[in-house]
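task queued by scheduler; priority normal; single chain, no ligands, no partner chains; default sampling; output format set to structure tokens
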Amino acid sequence: MNIHERAIVHPTASIGDGTVVGPDAIIDEHVTIGAQCEIRARAIITGHTTMGDRNQIGYHAVIGAEPQDLAYDNSVSYVRIGNDNIIRENTTIHRGTKSESATVLGDRNYLMSGVHVAHNCQIGNEVILVNNVLLGGYVEIRDYAFLGGDVVVHQFVRIGEYVMVRGQTRVGMDIPPYCMAAYTNAVVGLNRVGLKRRGFDAEQRKTIQRAFDVVFRQGNNREQAMSAMRVFKGLQTDEVKLLMSFLEGTQRGICDFKEDREED
């Protein structure tokens, strides 16, 4: 490892082989950092934070600070970060609120500058959060989602796999897998470009579109849409089952469909 002489690293912190710690970075006593990570200048890693290998932590990022929650009683809680993540400058990731709970970030995610990940968020793999995305507590972002700049997500909201959320969108209800979201609590269509880039073939995309129409375009409520998809044999695919499972698990409700009137 290569620790700059001006870095402050607690003697009980665990630092993996090949990890570089920049000047004025602070790594506290209960922190574990894997191999070949880069902790850039003035980053702070505190609390009971564990991260895997090959992560990059940007300038002035703060990982593992106490949650911004009046219910927090100074109990031990965690931040757990996987491998191969890029966490850019001034990003904050707070530890869980309840005792022994955790904020979790998976593998190969890219959090751009100024992102805030509140307590107890669960972020999957290969998620991209663009500059200044704000996640409230207990938000769940599933694999391959993309949130544009300045997106604000209310606590307890879930965002499904392969979702694209346009910049400056305000989200207070769940966004199902494969969808494109915009405005305030609005689904405006499918993330067609994202699905194609992720390798979904034409037949898979057609089936997802049919399921989308059942959920959003045929006047069904959620229970009616679920029933329609269960009896329609042409929709009994793994892709649609993923969508149905998400719909079954909603607690906050699903964003409404809105015709897309984005200006050119």
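post-processing summary
- The first helix runs from residue 192 to 197.
- The mean pLDDT is 96.
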